[in-house]
Amino acid sequence: MTATIFNIAPHQVIVVTDTLAVAGDTRTPYFFTTKFYPLPHLHGAMFATGVGDLATQWFVKLERFLVRDIHHLDEFARPTLQELGLQFGLNQTNTTTIYHIGYSEKESQYIGFAYRSIADFASERLEYGLRTKPGVPDAAVQSFPDDFIRLMEQQRADDLALPVESRVFIGGEIQALMLQDKEMTIQTVYRFDDYEELYEQMCNALPANRR
Questions:
Q1: pLDDT the model gives residue 211
Q2: What per-residue confidence (pLDDT) applies to 121?
Q3: Beta strands of 51-155 (E only): which ranges?
């Protein structure tokens, strides 16, 4: 589960995510983690929503594809993602969406693809523009990182207003990845106000032999 905001333009991509992971059975704070996967050799990145362990396994596998760029990877992604979907028992309620964004040598610009488990991981070319998940009505950005932080604070407020069983749980820090001119920068741009409280909860939940 994650909060994601990303903006794709022909010559620049910005992806921001939170870092909070919760235990699937108890839905309590579990650890902080990075939720996007840089792919410098493809001048791009991969990130996901839904089942995090599937995304991790996919990252390990795609690192071994003999491909030139994100466009080339698209030719081979679906069959392996389908296999992973079966392994993780995905269904209409337990879902994952994988995103690939990177520079296309063929088109000389940045492009993106989505692979949704509910669509049997069919390749979906992403249009340029801003996307938020969970969705924020009338979302818009002009400045980085301020507008991205503002939007994720809104996502978090909306999420906290939901019943516990419906939340995606947003927290920790906001990490940002920017792709531009075939260069990649990664930075932490914000820390939520309950970071220390969540960290203390996680530490207290550890078995005694791991503290």
A1: 55
A2: 95
A3: 96-104, 109-116, 123-125, 129-133
Residue 83: in which H helix or E strand, if any?
helix 77-87
**Distance, CA of 92 to chain centre:** 20
Handedness of CA 25, 31, 32, 35 (dihedral sign): negative
Judged by phi (left if over 0) then psi (alpha if -120 to 50, else beta), residue 84 lies in alpha
Tell me, what DSSP letter sits at residue 165?
A: G
For the segment 73-100, the average pLDDT, to the nearest whole number, is 91
Alpha carbon of 66 to those of 48, 119, 202: distances in Å?
A: 22, 25, 40
Q: What are phi and psi for residue 168, nearest 5 degrees?
A: -95, -15
CB-count burial class (<10 Å; 0-12, 13-18, 19+) for 80: middle
Q: What is the pLDDT of residue 52?
A: 79
At residue 209, does pLDDT exceed 60? no
All domains of the chain, ordered by start, with CATH? 4-210 (3.60.20.10)
- For 146, phi and psi rounded to 5 degrees? -55, -45
pTM: 0.92
